[in-house]
Prior knowledge:
Phosphatase 2c, domain 1; 5-stranded antiparallel beta sheet; alpha+beta; 2 domains
Amino acid sequence: MRFTVGKKIGLGFGIVLVLLLTVFVITLYVLKNAESTLKKSIDTNDQFLKVGQPSVFQLNNLKKDLTNTHMFIQQWLEVEATNDASQKQKANELMDSIVPADTIKINELSIRWSELNNNLILYSEIKKDISRLFGDYNDNVRTQLNDGFKSYKNWDYFMLKTLFEMETEPKYNSLMVKMDTLISNKNFEANQQQLQSNTAFKGTNNNFKRLSVGVLIAGIALVLGTIIIALFTTLSITRPVQQLKKILVDLGRGVFPKKQINPSNDEIGEMSVAMNSLVEGLQKTTSFAHEVGQSNFNFPYKPLSDDDDLGHALLKMKDELAETERILEQKVKERTQEVVKQKDEIDNQKSKLEELYKDVTDSIRYAKRLQDSILPPKRYIESLFPSSFVLFKPKDIVSGDFYWMNKIGSKHIFAAVDCTGHGVPGAFMSLVGANGLNAAVKEHRLQNPGKILDDLNNYASESLYKQGDENAIRDGMDIAICSIDYKKMLLEYAGAYNPLYIVRDNEIVITKGDKFAIGSFNPYTKSFATHKIPLLAGDIVYIFSDGYADQFGGLKGKKYMYKQFRETLLSIKDLPMEDQRLALDSKIETWKGSYEQVDDILIIGVQIN
Length: 609
């Protein structure tokens, strides 16, 4: 039997429906039990609140009123008094209204007392005992002693007291025993009812807890069932469709699948069989086309059917290509001699180009020697800054970055300069920059870094004829220049874009330069600011161009960035200066990897001892 897509989807929805019905039935069943338990708890609680507890209360009231009645009757008997004495009035009120009212209330409650015990019989006996006791009160006290003091003067009074003690007192004591028994019984029943009510409410709470757990379990089962159905649908329907889609997309890109689809027993399986047949036919056609392309015109090929237009077109193409190849072979023979002649001419042109390239390269290498001549030698650097390093990595043979150092008076001056561009254009600008710095310090005797940059800007503008010319070249320089007075432990800094870093303890103190470049404005229209910074022993001063931070590399081919550059400086601050140079060089080479160097790299580091 074929398990079609429709049957699979129907089965999935059927299972979900069964799970939903199961959740509904479980919920309904638990709710039914909870409703029954709740009704039972309400009935029990109602019995306790409206019958049990009030019965105990009224019985205690009756006992109290009987006790008070007996006490007032005793006072009536023993204390000679007029008829308006308080004990006589209270006794009359209790016997005539209060005690009867108590029994009426208890009678109303006793209607709902259980008949499974002897409480009703006991209460009936109590009412009879009350009637007999009150009869004695009337006959022996109220009737006999109702004439004020005269009643107490008769010899019968002593007989009444004796009769009261011998007959009435035992009846009262017997009544109290029965009252205590009934009160104890009803109190026990009330406690049992309260216990049953609490148990019933607890049962209701447990039922609702079971409902919550049942619904949670059923919900989890529903979610798991849905997930299983979704996985089943994905594996049996969605996944084969995705495989077919992938094959069609790959075929659209000219890529054949590596393996065939295993067909299932449904409509998607039929499409899979058709797709496998199509791929197989296309692979045979591709092999045939490949062999024909290799001039193997005898390769066997048979169209898929008489209606296979592509197959018949390929057979016709094979015959036409065979004829075309024969014609081309003839033309190739004719052109070979001409090509041989052209090759000799090309070889001559190649030799001339190689000679020209050598001349240009030699010129650039000579230009590098000229540029190297403007850079201070290592011994001169060590004489000015014994604890220092210079990391200089030109992008090309010659560089647009250069470093410059000098001394005037007690001030040791050094600068890191980044000219516009790199290679030969940058090298020409570096010559202008070096000459301008030498003129500012050696000829004009300037010591203030800001003044030196102002003078350099004037020199660059005059050298490149920028003043008043709107079409002048807009080349310039970014620079950081510092002077250190070791006696005063004072550093003066000025910058055109390029900042100053000072590593002090575990932090980097950053001083930013002005945001305009050398040669970007007419002389005397702007001035560079000089920043004065007191130095401490152990400080490390860094100035640099932007080549290090702008280098692309790493796993994602991103820039190194200034944040990572600062982290690197902090990580190597305790190394000797030459080791710092080697560490920075190794770090950027590892970061760069297979990427090309994008700009000249220059970093100068000076440690204050």
